Here is the input.
Amino acid sequence: MSKKISIIIPVWNGAKYIEETIACALDQDYENKEVIVVNDGSTDLSLDVILKFGNQIRSFTQENKGLGATRNVGVRMSTGDYFAFLDQDDLWKKTKLSLQMKEMLLSEKEDPLIFSYAEQFICPSLSEEDREKIFIHQSILPGYVAGTLLVSKNRFNQIGFFFEEKMIGEFMEWYLRAVEIKAPIKMLSEVTFRRRIHRDNMGRQRDLFSRHDFIKVLKTSLDRRRAKLQGN
Here is the structure.
């Protein structure tokens, strides 16, 4: 029997897009999967949308704790051998999991983190005025982001859970820990991930976005590396 993949979808006020995102996870052509949706204290109609899917998914609602903590809840709820993460407004190509699992099985002894290429698209709901204000890279790029990742449970446990402080850059912090322990990393050449650009992307909300968060993440990684060198 094929190994099970747990798809973990954190949601915070994502009622506009979460139905399409959950549907795209359920529509993956890899059969042995479970979809876990964690509602992080949404105050919009996200929960109503989530409940429409009934027993097709597993869901949990908590008070608002932030993205890292919400992903960790999904990991703890999971029963899969592998984890994949999908944010509430992004999409996967139908073959995302099957392509990555094929590569994973070929590299089973290495137990790598497997990423893929990604593309960005402007949400059709945006007005012409909003579209004119947005610049995105039209080219397809390597996607070192949570939405393209496939990782085994064993490798994830070695790296550890996501940072739970409410801040931008929780995945960067996790990825840097993976690099520090020299976890094998592979990048598939196929595009499997589509990032939706819309008015509410966290990275475009200036009141929430802080470069200090990224500086803090990088400093923490450098401090760990210095401590390791001093220990040797």
